[in-house]
Specification:
By secondary structure, the protein is α/β, with parallel strands linked by helices. It has one domain: Protocatechuate 4,5-dioxygenase, Chain B, CATH 3.40.830.10. The chain is built from 8 helices and 12 strands. The chain has a 6-stranded mixed sheet, with helices on both faces. Strands 3-6 form a two-stranded parallel ribbon. A hairpin with a 2-residue loop joins β10 and β11. α3 packs across α5, α5 packs across α8 and α6 packs antiparallel against α7.
């Protein structure tokens, strides 16, 4: 039997790809705490003895079903169409998780959830997956999962239930990594470079920052039902990936019944208007 051995909400901003001196320049002399936070996350993954990463990638959008990358292996060179100045000609080479992907497709079909297991090794890459692998990968199998842009919260939770059941049916010790941010609106082009500071004062609006902080408080207490119920009020603040990365993870861990408390592994930071943080969830306390 497999097990969800770890779960975390993880930022993936392109800032993580640039040299420290540049990061400090953008941060008014201090580095982003997200770098050290990924080191803390790796230590916890080591302690959990995970052998598989399930990365819910908020830059991979699908339309008519949930899609995941089920090839045996992925190898190639990546340049970001969004940020080629930061991420260009980047080689990648990592093993897939084809057995888990096959089990997930079968489980979802049984449960009435539409999925596609995309087994082509030529499937395009996205930088949330690749940035996390740069910092965290130590040979684990990797299943990258997309965000269905037409899904509603209940659809994400249902797909998450299929994911959780598939992991339990497999032999994997899986870490679910929800790769994305919180509120996610950028400043206009003419202003954006004035808001490179990591200080959350620069979050796009005080209301967006307040909603992020409310959710962080709920996570700290393990009140995932409250976070799910808050979604209609949160949606106007444009959570990244429709918050599907979090909702899929929550669905895999019990949905509204999940009570695992969260511990921040980084500070809550700004990234040109968006809310960013790493949060580790204690599964033993659920």
């Amino acid at each position: 039997m497999g097990e969800i051995a770890a779960a975390a909400f993880v930022a993936h901003i392109p800032t993580l790809t640039v040299p420290e001196d540049v990061r400090r320049q953008w941060g008014d002399g201090r580095d982003t705490t997200l770098v050290e936070g990924l080191g803390r996350l790796r230590e916890r993954l080591d302690a959990a003895d995970v052998d598989t990463f399930v990365i819910i990638d908020t830059h991979w959008f699908t339309t008519t079903e949930h899609v995941f990358a089920g090839a045996d292996h992925f190898r190639g060179v990546y340049t970001s169409e969004e940020m080629p100045r930061a991420i260009s000609d980047k080689p990648y080479d990592y093993p897939g998780a084809p057995e888990l992907a096959k089990t997930l497709h079968e489980t979802a079909k049984e449960q009435g959830v539409r999925t596609t297991n995309a087994v082509s090794p030529a499937l395009p890459q996205h930088y949330p997956t690749l940035i996390l692998l740069d910092y965290l990968h130590r040979g684990e199998k990797v299943l990258s999962v997309g965000i269905c842009q037409t899904a509603q919260p209940d659809d994400f939770l249902a797909f998450g239930r299929s994911l959780g059941e598939a992991i339990r049916r497999s032999g994997a010790r899986a870490a679910i990594l929800a790769a994305g941010g919180m509120s996610h609106r950028f400043y206009p082009l003419g202003e954006i470079l004035d808001h490179l500071s990591y200080d959350p004062f620069h979050i796009i609006t005080p209301e967006a920052r307040g909603m992020d902080e409310k959710i962080l408080g709920y996570w700290e207490r393990g009140d995932h039902a409250a976070v799910i119920d808050l979604y209609p009020q949160y949606r106007p603040h444009s959570p990244e990936g429709f918050f599907g990365h979090y909702l899929i993870m929550a669905g895999a861990l019990g949905g509204r019944e999940w009570t695992g408390p969260g511990t921040m592994l980084s500070a809550y930071e700004n990234s040109v208007g968006t809310g960013q943080v790493h949060v580790w969830f204690d599964l033993d306390a659920s």
